[in-house]
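Supplementary Methods. Inverse-folding protocol.

Structures were first reduced to a discrete structure-token string of length 138. This string, shown here, constituted the complete conditioning input.
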């Protein structure tokens, strides 16, 4: 009879590793706080020019997007409209990604050790169950 992954590995190890892995990663992701500072007036990109600091906000990125969409609706084969639209969407995507902040909540060393043992131990046990074991002579 084949076990986990079609090999002669242990089915019990597979499920114990899977439960440990899921529990550890759940605890890890539960300890991470995600916050975004993205808004229409938020500065996405900044640069120095002409002796001052200039910034491009997400609202300013929407202006070429609007013109690009208008050009696409007027003539869908207009390459400038596609460039403006796709370029603006890429700039907005990078702006949203760059405004995301990840923070770990404070935890005790015991909490961190439990999370790491469950996560990494579960991955190791899970992968070990997929390995084929030699048949024992009975």
């Amino acid at each position: 009879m084949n076990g986990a992954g079609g090999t002669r590995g242990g089915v019990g190890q597979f499920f114990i590793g899977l439960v440990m892995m899921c529990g550890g990663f759940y605890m890890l992701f539960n300890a991470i706080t995600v916050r975004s500072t993205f808004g229409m007036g938020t500065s996405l990109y900044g640069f120095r020019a002409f002796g001052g600091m200039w910034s491009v906000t997400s609202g300013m990125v929407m202006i070429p997007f609007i013109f690009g969409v208008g050009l696409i609706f007027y003539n869908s084969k207009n390459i400038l409209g596609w460039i403006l639209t796709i370029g603006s969407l890429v700039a907005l995507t990078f702006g949203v990604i760059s405004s995301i902040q990840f923070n770990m909540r404070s935890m005790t060393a015991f909490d961190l050790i439990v999370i790491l043992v469950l996560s990494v131990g579960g991955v190791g046990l899970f992968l070990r169950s997929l390995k084929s074991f030699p048949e024992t002579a009975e």
